[in-house]
């Protein structure tokens, strides 16, 4: 599996009609982190789990940041394109439909960047504790892309207004956005799992398998 550019794992599903999930971990995670969540959120879906290629003091991430919440936007752009290219290559290699991203924190942020920079690569996204990845993204047409943006009321890393701004940005680009704010911090909770599973059950079959 190392022929493709990112370290990754594929867990084949047993429901060929189910949209695959692209699992994108938070800072310090790896391709194994979100597999249990992915299995619970999308039973039977193929899971494609990827490891970020940037190291921050040894912790994998998907793009560089200058400080907490302050992103190196040139790097965000470059890494988002690299991840989009990887998704295209992995789809060909494993015969997959366009995936829905399930991203947490830094992984949710890169998923948002891929959507804004490379519309159509992702069929949708479950963005848990996401922030605006690019202050001024280029115009994008996200019609047909479904997104769940879930924030925490007590999140010390992502101010609620930032999640709100991301939801508005995706919505303005034409995405079908559901915005939810949960009574939690930056960490994930059972409420995220339930929300993500229900949202996916509603959206999995809707878009065409581009
Ligand atoms: C980031 O991308 O830096 C996140 O929003 C915060 C984190 O990953 O810790």
Architecture overview:
The chain is an alpha/beta fold and 210 residues long. The protein has one domain: Alpha/Beta hydrolase fold, catalytic domain (Rossmann fold), CATH 3.40.50.1820. It contains five helices and eleven strands, in the order ββαβββββαβαββαβα. Helix 1 links the parallel strand 2 (21-24) and strand 3 (47-50). The longest helix is centred in the middle third of the chain and has 22 residues, at 73-94. It starts with 7 loop residues before the first strand and ends in a 7-residue tail after the last helix. Bound molecules: D-malate.
Q: Which descriptors apply to this entry?
A:
210 residues, alpha/beta, Rossmann fold, seven-stranded mixed beta sheet, two-stranded antiparallel ribbon, 5 helices, disordered C terminus, binds D-malate
Oligomer: single chain
Give me the CATH fold name.
Answer: Rossmann fold
In what order do the strands lie side by side in the largest sheet? 1-3-2-8-9-10-11
The SSE string, one letter per element, is EEHEEEEEHEHEEHEH
Give the biggest beta sheet: 7 strands, mixed
- SS elements, strand count: 11
Topology of this protein?
Elements: E1 8-11, E2 21-24, H1 35-41, E3 47-50, E4 54-56, E5 59-61, E6 65-67, E7 70-71, H2 73-94, E8 100-104, H3 106-117, E9 124-128, E10 146-152, H4 160-172, E11 176-182, H5 190-203
Parallel strand pairs: 2-3, 2-8, 8-9, 9-10, 10-11
Antiparallel strand pairs: 1-3, 4-5, 6-7
């Amino acid at each position: 599996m190392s022929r493709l550019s990112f370290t990754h794992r594929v867990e084949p599903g047993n429901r060929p009609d189910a949209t695959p999930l692209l699992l994108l971990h938070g800072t310090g995670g790896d391709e194994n982190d979100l597999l249990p969540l992915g299995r619970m959120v999308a039973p039977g879906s193929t899971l494609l789990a990827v490891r970020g290629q940037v190291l921050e003091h040894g912790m994998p991430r998907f793009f560089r940041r200058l400080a907490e919440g302050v992103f190196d936007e040139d790097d965000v752009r470059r890494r988002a394109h690299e991840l989009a290219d990887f998704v295209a290559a992995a789809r060909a290699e494993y015969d997959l439909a366009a995936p829905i991203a399930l991203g947490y924190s830094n992984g949710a942020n890169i998923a948002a960047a891929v959507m804004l920079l490379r519309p159509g690569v992702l069929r949708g996204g479950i963005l848990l504790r996401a922030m605006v990845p690019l202050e001024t993204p280029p115009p994008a047409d996200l019609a047909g892309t479904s997104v769940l943006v879930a924030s925490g009321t007590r999140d010390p890393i992502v101010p609620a207004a930032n999640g709100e701004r991301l939801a508005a940005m995706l919505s303005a680009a034409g995405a079908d956005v559901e915005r939810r704010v949960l009574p939690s911090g930056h960490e994930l909770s059972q409420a995220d799992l339930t929300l993500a599973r229900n949202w996916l059950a509603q959206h999995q079959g809707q878009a065409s398998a581009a």
